[in-house]
Amino acid sequence: MKQFYHFILKEFYHIFRDRKTLLILLGMPMAQIIIFGFALSNEVKNAHITIVNESNGAASVQLVQKIEASKYFELYNQSTRTADIEKMFKKGVIKVALVIPSDFDKTILAQNNSRLQIIADATDPNVATTLTAYLSIIIADFQKEINQLNTVPYTIDLETRMMYNPQLKGAYNFVPGVMAMVLLLVCTMMTSLTIVREKELGNMEILLASPVNPLIIILAKAVPYLILSIINIITILLLSYFVLDVPINGSLILLFAVSILFILVSLSLGLLISSVTDSQKSAMFISLIVMFLPTVMFSGFIFPIENMPLPLRTISNIIPAKWYFIIVKSVMIKGLGFKLIWKEVLILTGMMLFLFSMAIKKFKIRLS
Hints:
Strand 1, helix 3 (about 60-70) and strand 2 form a beta-alpha-beta unit. The chain is an alpha/beta fold. The protein is elongated, with a radius of gyration of 26 Å. It has helices at about 1-15, 20-40, 60-70, 85-90, 105-110, 125-150, 170-200, 205-210, 215-240, 250-275, 280-300, 310-315, 320-335, 340-360; strands at about 45-55, 75-80, 95-100, 115-120, 155-165. The mean pLDDT is about 80. A 5-stranded mixed beta sheet has the order 2-1-3-4-5, with helices on both faces.
């Protein structure tokens, strides 16, 4: 019993001396509770909406005010031109649009009947369905309010239109997310493990003692995973197009180019992880836990980022998969060109340069 007690005491000493382990044991559960508590939600809040109010009458203004007061929508802007809607969808600045026709106030007063049009970005069918349902409920409440003030009931007919994904197929949102997850795991985890394995086996000292430049050694280990990742991209695109019926509306060359850029970001991250770790367990832990979970939570693949509070939305900006996910949906589903995704491409390029320079800086090219 005494020996058992000493073993327990010794284990506590190890934990308290290792600050990294202590941080993982105490800090990680708190971080996960906060992240999961805010991010795991079926509701969609603060979704950007544009309202094309061609009427500007009293009834239409009252409806706009009711939508603005809702916690589910954040008014991006008001316009009088329906042509602006598609531009905003392509830029990704709105999730849904409401078109109020010019004769809305006139027809609802004279004929007791009017029409509205809801246009949603259905690249994420779950979000599109949820937002159209929210808008329908708000309009139904508005209809009840005006009916209470009049003896003759008014009727509003809704016309709903799902852009880019009229059949609301989940694969349209699933495929870009899978591409991001596969590339991140293959490149980051495997690259970090293959270099750390050399350290554990003692082979890295032999390689560094050779006349070959250490930078060449590092790059040579990363190239196979670059090739494997390109094969993964081809396989995913073939399956999505021929099996899942997901279209490739944009440039295939542009899609491959941004995918290779994301691969380079992931490889650079893997090199950085291998530079700061000395065991395969540590490298795998960082790759799977520290990168995998944030990618799932903050990329927008599973949980809408709009649901999260401002601090977590800010954190999502440093997750490379978020920007790649936006690019793939924009090019593959919406058919956009480079002019409308240059910002995301620039961000990924900056991440790649930063991570690669940090990996080279942290890598020990001399024997200790």
